[in-house]
Amino acid sequence: MDLTPSLAVVESRRRQGEVLLQGRRLVLCSSSWPLLVSQVCVLQRGPQLLGACTTEEEGLALVMTHRPELLICHDGLDQGNGLRLIRRAKAAMPELRTLLIVQEPQRFAWKQLLHLGIDAACSGTQLGRGVVLKALKSLEQGGCFIDPALRSTSPLARPQLTGREQQVLEGLQRYESTKQQAKRLGLQLSTVKGYQRQLYNKLGAHCSTQAVLLGLHNGLLQAD
Questions:
Q1: d(C-alpha 150, C-alpha 211), whole Å
Q2: Long-range contact pairs involving 100-103 (C-beta distance under 8 Å, separation at least 24)
Q3: Nearest Cα to Cα of residue 97 among 209, 170, 21
Q4: N or C: which end of the chain has fewer CB within 10 A?
Q5: What is the CATH number that goes with domain 4-151?
Q6: What are 100-158's pLDDT values in tens digits?
Q7: CATH topology of domain 163-217
Q8: Kind and range of the H or E element at 120?
């Protein structure tokens, strides 16, 4: 595909984004090092880029240290999870604005956007098509933004959980540790860990936060 005719549009969007981010204190977090480097290069002018990283713990440390106005991160990270990073960062800084780049749109529960503390979410498949600029404009006006591509994504088939798996999922929503779940259910710690692994496999989740997110998305849980 020859993208030459679109170069002027791309440059115009870049300049508009630069204006919207002018002077804003910003932290970036992405699992893709090449993408992170390219974003850092693009954002050299405009925002005040305070830090960039590839893991959840590094992202949280940057937020706590520099107190940025905006956190832009991907849902998948080298270590940890972008969804959990946003929840932890917002708990510490409720005024922080957040923009999430969703790498697996079919697994994103967009209806739970506000519940998760996300101010704007864009599909990674739509990058370069002006969706990030729309998100930044919405954030600038104090609003929230959901990429239409996320709304139109067909949901996955609803997983069928056993009674124990459902109990474990509900415990994760209440932020119970594995030990707390074992005590509540009267089970061995290793048994609960086994149910958690089964639950993650059925949901396609990589961590407890994503499991809860997918549970909400599939109607297996009710939002608080």
A1: 18
A2: 100/73, 100/74, 100/75, 101/30, 101/72, 101/73, 101/74, 101/75, 101/127, 102/74, 102/75, 102/147, 102/150, 103/31, 103/74, 103/75, 103/76
A3: 21
A4: N
A5: 3.40.50.2300
A6: 988 877 666 666 665 667 888 888 877 777 888 888 888 888 888 888 888 765 555 66
A7: Arc Repressor Mutant, subunit A (1.10.10)
A8: strand 120-123
